[in-house]
Amino acid sequence: MKESFFSNILSGFTKKSKEIEEIGETKENNNIEEINEITTSSVQKSPPYIHYVTFNRLGVTIKNLTNILDSDEDFEMHIIDCNSKDDTWEYIQSLTDSRIKSKTRFEMNRGPIYALNYALTKRKPDQYFINIDSDTYIKTKNWISRFMEVFEAFPEVGVLGVMRDKPYPRFMPPIIPRVNGDISYLELKNAEIGGIMDFVPGQLQCLSPELIAEIGYWCEENGYGDAELSPRVKHYTPFTVGFLTTVEIDMKQTLGCNECKARDFCKLSKSINTCYSISKKSNKNESFALKFKWKYLETFKELEEGKRTAYCASIHDPESIKNNVYNQEWANENFDFYLNNSN
After folding, report:
1. Which pTM value belongs to this model?
2. In CATH terms, is domain 5-256+283-341 a member of 3.90.550.10?
């Protein structure tokens, strides 16, 4: 079997180490349609919480989500659709897997951090939180157990992710291989603030409940997502951030209409728009990052100067705003950027 990129990195190091040893409800902000399944509590530890966010790209979403639901692993999936303009929400409503615990549709897209933090407020305190982007196809079977075994072997790990893959170029920032018996991961070495891709990307990423208790939420004030999470955890908490080496993905961005599983019910006029062209036009993450990088840098300056802690508050959690530093003006400006440019 062909070795993975990760395996090639680890093989020599590992050898040496071994030698030496669905109910509808209207939300208070009146912009959400949600279908929830009421569950009973259990004395057992809650299965991982999967946050699956959709934003157009119906063809890719069907392919990738079907693959996840084909698994027999246990999880609680919560799907958020950020005002897709294709038939994504209609497809989501048709899903009947019992592991899907809620389906939520925002009437307006306020950006990825808004959706992430909304999901975090729904998570049980003991749940691991897994974020999966809709363009991520998980090739490895039993992938959740691969994440969990690393968290169990390395209690200091707070964030685990995987490297981006095709069509993106494979890139690995400086790392430190860590090995415990047969279990290993690649610890992010520097997480340089402002560094180019020196963070663990979030297309498939898992956070431990212990870390979440310490950091609260993704930072809404700078809105930088993965690029702010890794350095905040690395430099301002006792936890580490790293790459899982045993889960493979691909990130194919488009699917031809002739091979799309939605072709029989998709109502788009393909000669004018496809789900991918709509998605590409609406994705404003790069322009957001260029416009608001100064907030990202200022946030870390405040951390360095002791003006704030690693804990970030959220608009979805009013108590967190009362008890922690929260720049409401910055956060609203970030949400408004997506409202005005990505709907």
Report:
1. 0.85
2. yes
